[in-house]
Backbone:
């Protein structure tokens, strides 16, 4: 079974995907990790590599190709667009209020942000850039959630709660 977990910045993709993979004992694949590996291969920081990726659609396509290659057997794939590129059995999209995403981003990336408003501005800019980029490159509308089987607001639940919700829905699909 292939499960994809998508969502915008700091929505909880990696956290939920890791938890599901641990609980189900499935392989975990991360588009973010693939991008970090590609940056290391080029001797760049993730930020440097991301700036190049914004102007070079072939990088996104290489990330997608690596995901496809790795996504075999029982696995959970964490990636914003993974549901579009993989023949997954179950597709989850995560959302959260921007204030919560900003707090998560500040916790994760530390001193990069002066305050919550600064983090919110950064999220809005990055998300708008991604919406435009994915529309231009793939003709994907990130606001159209019809491709997903479940949409979960992670701002409403703690990690165990959102994991349980996901596992119940996955079990339901597996038992059909």
Residues:
């Amino acid at each position: 079974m292939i499960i994809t977990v998508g969502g915008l910045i700091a929505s909880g993709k990696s956290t939920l995907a890791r938890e599901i993979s641990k609980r189900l004992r499935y392989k975990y694949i991360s588009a973010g990790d693939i991008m970090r590996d590609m940056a290391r291969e080029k001797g760049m920081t993730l930020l440097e590599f991301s700036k190049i990726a914004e102007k070079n659609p072939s990088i996104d396509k290489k990330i997608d190709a690596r995901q496809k290659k790795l996504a075999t057997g029982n696995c959970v794939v964490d990636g914003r667009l993974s549901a579009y590129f993989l023949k997954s059995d179950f597709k989850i999209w995560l959302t959260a209020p921007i204030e919560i995403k900003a707090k998560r981003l500040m916790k994760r990336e530390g001193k990069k942000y002066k305050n919550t408003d600064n983090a919110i501005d950064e999220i809005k800019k990055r998300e708008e850039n991604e919406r435009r980029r994915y529309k231009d490159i793939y003709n994907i509308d990130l606001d159209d959630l019809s491709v997903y089987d479940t949409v979960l607001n992670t701002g409403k639940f703690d990690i165990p709660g959102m994991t349980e919700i996901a596992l119940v829905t996955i079990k339901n699909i597996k038992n059909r």
